[in-house]
Amino acid sequence: MIFLIAIFLSLIAVFVLLKKATEKDESPAAQNEVPTDDSGCCGAHEVCEKDSLLNTQNKFEYYDDEELDQFAGMKSEEYSETDIEEFCKVFYTMRETDVVGWLKSLQLRNIELPEQLRDEALLIVQEIREKRSK
Known about the structure:
By secondary structure, this protein is an all-alpha fold. Helices cover 54% and strands 0% of the residues. The relative contact order is 0.12.
């Protein structure tokens, strides 16, 4: 009988020790983890990188705008009216929250935004920044 009680107490002690050990291993990782939620800023930087128009990575994403690759390397002054219409078609059909990413993508692909869209695009970026800062 004493033998069974000793085994039972040993099992409880092992269980408690293992539980504490796993809690200690998880705690530092949880503290250093940066949230990957796409809904807002992670708060880890002084200026939110999601709103930044500076590219910190070399990868880009297409926003259903593969046809704009033909303008890579061209100056915005060289665009014809039909060229500008292609940019407008993409710009006016995307969600406002995608504008920052789209502008970064264009920059990485060496595509200049037409002058006619720059002010409006930057206004949207500014509005998004103001909403997030509130």
